[in-house]
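cron nightly-structures :: item 1 of 1
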Amino acid sequence: MVMSAAGIAESAHRVGVQGGLALTSATGLVGHVLAKAPKGVKYGKTVAELADVVLPALTESVALLKPQDPAEADNFRATVLVALDAAAGVHQGTPSPTLVDMARKITEALDAA
């Protein structure tokens, strides 16, 4: 969702679709968790508001998973990175600098735990 919001207007939908497909293809515990949409979550109306919710949630998710199940923490991180690659791959050639920057922020959030 953050990658889609940060995408170029004409391809934001495709970025969201490709990233979403990657997330819905997740397996293991991560796949089961991602299949259940959270209720009552407010994501915000701007990329900044969305990032303020999503980036800390990614960090917290990895921090919670690591001590309980390191393999699932790795699975979660890998799943998110596959979604990033799928979203960035929508563009033929090089992804936009905006998408590259958002991917960096997401990766940093995953690694902050």
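cron nightly-structures :: done
The two ends are 21 Å apart (CA to CA).
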